[in-house]
Amino acid sequence: MPVTAHIHIMKTIAILLFILFTGITGYSQPVVIHKNAPDSLTTTVPGENIDYTSGSYALVAGGSKGIGFGIAEALARRHYNLVLIARHSDSLIAAKHRLETTYDIHVEILPYDLSKETTAEEIARWCTDRNIHLKMLCNVAGYGGARDYMKLPLDTLRYMVRLNLESYVALTYTLLPLLEKNAPSYILNVGSMAGFAPLPGKNLYCATKSAVVFFSYSLRHQLKMKRISVSCLCPGPVFTKPEIEKDTKQKLGKLGVWMEVSPARVGEVAVRKTLRKRMIIVPGTLARISSGIIRVVPRGWTAGITGKSGRK
Fold this sequence. Notes:
The chain has about 300 residues and is α/β, with parallel strands linked by helices. It is about 50% helix and about 10% strand. The protein has helices spanning about 5-20, 65-75, 90-100, 120-130, 155-180, 205-225, 240-250, 255-260, 265-275, 285-295, 300-310, and strands spanning about 55-60, 80-85, 105-110, 135-140, 185-190, 230-235, 280. Strands 3-2-1-4-5-6-7 form a 7-stranded parallel beta sheet, sandwiched between helices. The protein is globular and about 60 Å long.
């Protein structure tokens, strides 16, 4: 192969790795950690007589905004009733109103901090007590941002691990009996393209998302005989906030705009392919091609190239 061809390939790989290095996804902006998040589960219509056994339900953890809301809306279009979980009641109420007004479905909202150790068990108890006809679990909640390992305090790093990985493991474990009872059913875990490669600038974020990918692969085979299908969504750039769009355009220019996929589109693709039992889901043609290349690039190259970029 001519030397110029080698150079062109290396430049292409470097660009793709830089895209990963920026790690711009819809749920990756820093958030304030609330030490006193609600400890009890509530609904917006106390005492309402709902038959949770009629119709199919999907539980979306992190479903009030961004990619999570895109997934919730895609499910609502398919007539799934919803249980939405997030920390902030105001965003949950807004999401419930929008979905119930637009679609003929019922939406329950549970304001809860998914990083807390007892949350998954309490959510599972809430669902089990009502005998909810749960057909799909969507683990979407996540934390990340421009700062990562060695640039964040230890308690924030631990929060990232708890939210990005432990909440997925715990919710899946505690809700498996309901999913098995209502099989065939589905689990959708949200990873990231950043989970395909080691990136020094986003060390822990990549590690948690890589763990989600591996967890999903293994879980898929463990649950196959139980008729529970497992999928993993790994999106590239998603503009869910103005600052994300601004940062993407500053770093990547037109390339970032070409790769971007809207939260609504991500949600639609994720739900459609989950129901088709696809394992890895990467929305967007350019992102899908890029992820394919990144997954075959030696990981030492990835760490080296992005590590140099991060020191500039």
